[in-house]
Amino acid sequence: MNSLFKKILPLLALALLASASFARHDDASPKVIELKAKRFAFVPGEITLKKGEPVVLRLTTEDVTHGLYLKPLKIDATIEPGKTSDVNVTPQQTGKFVAICDHFCGAGHGNMHLVVNVVE
Amino acid sequence: MNRRKFLKITGTSFGIGALYQVLPVAANGQSHEFLNFLGKENGERPTPFSFVQLSDTHVGFNGPPDPLGTKAFEHAVDMVNGMANKPDLIIVTGDLVHDSEKPDEQAARMKLFREISSRLKTPMLKLVPGEHDAGLDGGQMFRENFGETSYSFDHRGVHFIALDNVSRAKPEVGPEGIAWLKKDLARFPKTAPIVVMTHRPLFDLKPEWEWFTSDGDDVMNVLAPYENVTVLYGHIHRDHEHEEGHVKHYAARSLIFGFPDPEKTPVDQKKPVAFDKENPFKNLGIRVVNEIPGKRSQPTSLEINDVELSLREYNGVVGIQQLLKDGDM
Asked: Is-contact A36 A63, C-beta < 8 A?
């Protein structure tokens, strides 16, 4: 029994370490904000981010290909049907920004936008 | 006169008109030779002429805010046909039709555009696609109806370039388009008079309203060495002038509805200007571009006249000629 314990002890220790490491990584993971694109809106239509805080925008589309473009925050993504696009963002300036769909998606495309508020 | 000598003589900037301004050669009898040189280089010797720009006709659009459909477009056609000084050519800088998801309907709208534009009494009609014409199908139907989306031609010594920045669905020309532009310009001297016709602005006018071209800087880098470039575009449905380096950018009014001044409008409030029953053609209009012959002391230049379609013209009270007179054309 002692021998068996000695054999599995290192494995248990490794498992505990891995678990602890994973937990630490999980705590540090950026917040994920899910955004759905559909003609001719983003849902939600407005989000708030914190300056300097990394987030992941998880983008999907319910219909056709869309885009998400916001130059000041360096966002330039294509959102294709059946795929999930993750965009990492760490805002460096506060303010109210308007991101647009920059992949032409139909007659209402010109007004498809997402308001992004960045606060301290 | 070889190119090296020509460049040495002219030094830096001279525009369309500067072709004449630069003629110190005129004093020593070389103006003819100079113009012939440009003619040889550009394919044609520069001579004065005028042309008209229409834009954003959006055939098929059914308000709000504009319940007039194609009336403004049709009146613009009448106005152009009534001009005493006939333009050599007419260009339309995109969004000929308002897009329909149904291909048959889209085809019908393009057919209607063709019917109305065919009434223009002009020897040359040149079109550029907008995103409503070419954004959904990569420009396939535009090509079938009107030809290539990017192309160039020479007219009276001016090199015209139609530059597609819509059919990749995103607001961009794309690497192939930029490579084509470089190749197209390669045969021209840096002094060649160039007019670029495109749909979206080639600079960041208002990205939040999609008033930009994402690789516009790359396009401008290709154009930068050329000393006499004018960019005419549409998309923003209002007048706008912008100058950067040697390049002047002019936006045209639409023939369907206007957009407000982005500087005076909240960034998330992009909406067409409300329809005014008392003044149904307010904010709509056409542009007439005259190439004005220069003198030695005053260079030849492009004269831009924006003419708003008016209620008077709409009612036929005053008539086209009076309107043209009022429009200082």
From this structure: no
